[in-house]
Write a structure and sequence with these properties.
about 120 residues, 3-stranded antiparallel beta sheet
Length: about 120
């Protein structure tokens, strides 16, 4: 009976810990998406106003994405072209249920991209 109780407790910890890791990965992907969207808002206004060309201002887009990551306590890399911004975000997430197994935090890395859009989405 003692072994059964111990097994149940260990399995519950593993299941809950797995849920925490899944949540951390979801949060990491959310960070990458939000940073990419923040960068995608930085369009080249001169080109847009002159001839309607919708393209990113690479320096401003990268700076906006990096500011978002820093404010969220994450790090990452940003790649910008005139048409798209891609952000790879890395963050550390606490895993209290796994601390007893030697994993108090998990490093999460996720990548997301965004493109500039004129007006509200369809």
């Amino acid at each position: 009976m003692l072994y059964t109780g111990l097994i149940v407790v260990v399995l519950a910890g593993v299941v809950l810990g797995g849920g925490v890791v899944f949540g951390a990965r979801t949060h990491g992907y959310d960070l990458a998406q939000q940073a990419a969207r923040a960068g995608a808002q930085e369009i080249d206004l001169a080109a847009y106003r002159t001839n309607g060309t919708l393209r990113l201002d690479p320096a401003r887009a990268a700076a906006a994405a990096n500011r978002f990551l820093a404010a969220a306590g994450a790090t990452g890399t940003v790649a910008v072209t005139a048409a798209q911004i891609t952000v790879t975000a890395t963050s550390q997430q606490d895993t209290p249920m796994l601390a007893g197994f030697g994993h108090p935090t998990v490093s999460v890395t996720a990548t997301a991209s965004a493109t500039p859009v004129a007006g509200p989405p369809p």
